[in-house]
Write a structure and sequence with these properties.
- It is a single chain.
- By secondary structure, the chain is an alpha+beta fold.
- It contains 12 helices and 14 strands.
- Helix 2 (20-39) packs across helix 3.
- It starts with a helix and ends with a helix.
- This is Transcription termination/antitermination protein NusA.
Length: 327
């Protein structure tokens, strides 16, 4: 009987392009499940395929130690159940093993961009995305707020993580993570991929605005111009992919005053006062540019705070001077 099962394992492994140990585990799990059902047992069982025959053990845990006790069952009865299992339970276990392998193949792609087809929009707003062999989940929280997804359309996203949830594998996707923007930039700008330009930091308000802090190894290179491209030829396709998200590319400097000025782009900054002990900065901008510096719902200054690591107070020139006089 065991010899026949070993041949079956070899044959199925070859047909399904699976490792023999995966097929063997699926078969042993199937036999254990079938014996459990047949005997109406509640304990966990373990099956071993030995030269002398199929052995079944009851598995118990004492403290952190696993103990195995032989199950009182005849060889004939195990063989009968196993023969039945090879036709039914085994196929179910094998399906499970194949699906698991499909998910595990995606572990190596964590942090990379994947493309799939929208298959279903769930009631909670999560989107199921067909990635070929398996399905991915684009949760509501990982979606760009203004986007609407339709069945059958292609969607590009970051493979955020492959995780096990309630005994099943899940592939979590994201379109809001800063790394998604980083990977889009790498794909569009060869100089980033080659390492000539380094991305120091990214801050995003998905679908609204993003700030990208960059540094060129060659001081003669203009990293901002390279990334933006001629008339926006490189940055515009990325902005379009992100539903019109405006992307400010900022050249990194180790001078905090200069960095803060650049971070409030597109607003012009007239003066900067640093309060290092509080990691806070007060900046003066022309009165008519105040709303531009702060941004809609405070987005521009919020992103500037995050990209520089400084808390920035944006003031009109008049208020800045008034505050200076009081100090």
């Amino acid at each position: 009987m065991v010899k026949n099962l070993k041949k079956l394992i070899e044959q199925v492994a070859k047909e399904k392009n699976l490792p023999e140990w995966t097929v063997e585990n699926a078969l042993k799990n199937a036999i254990a499940l079938a014996v459990k059902k047949d005997r109406k047992l509640k304990e966990n069982l373990r099956v071993e395929l030995l030269e002398e025959g199929i052995k079944v053990y009851i598995v118990k845990r004492k403290n952190s130690e696993e103990l195995a006790f032989p199950l009182d069952i005849s060889t004939e009865e195990v063989n009968r159940i196993a023969a039945h299992v090879a036709k039914e339970e085994f196929l179910k276990e094998l399906e499970k093993a194949e699906e698991e392998r499909g998910y595990l193949e995606f572990v190596e792609q964590e942090g990379q961009i994947v493309v799939g087809i929208v298959r279903r929009i769930l009631e909670n707003g999560d989107v199921l995305v067909d990635l070929g062999k398996v399905m991915g989940i684009l949760p509501k929280r990982e979606q760009i707020p203004k986007e609407v997804y339709r069945q059958g359309e292609r969607v590009k996203a970051l493979l955020l993580e492959v995780r096990k949830h309630r005994g099943k594998y899940e592939i979590i996707l994201s379109r809001t993570h800063p790394k998604f923007l980083k990977k889009l930039l790498e794909a569009e700008v060869p100089e980033i991929k080659s390492g000539e330009i380094e991305i120091k930091a990214i801050a995003r308000e998905p679908g609204e605005r993003a700030k990208v802090l960059v540094h060129a190894k060659d001081m003669k290179m203009d990293p901002v111009g390279v990334i933006v491209g001629l008339k926006g030829s490189r940055i515009n396709p990325i902005s379009k992919e992100l539903s019109g998200e405006k992307i400010d590319v900022i050249r990194w400097t180790d001078n905090p005053e200069e960095l803060i000025k650049k971070s409030l782009s597109p607003a012009p900054v007239v003066k900067v006062r640093l309060i290092p002990q509080e990691k806070r900065a007060e900046v003066a901008v022309p009165k008519d540019k105040l709303s531009l510096a702060i941004g809609k719902h405070g987005v521009n200054v919020k992103l500037a705070n995050r990209i520089t690591g400084w808390y920035i107070d944006v003031l009109s020139e008049e208020d800045f001077e008034r505050l200076t006089a009081l100090k």
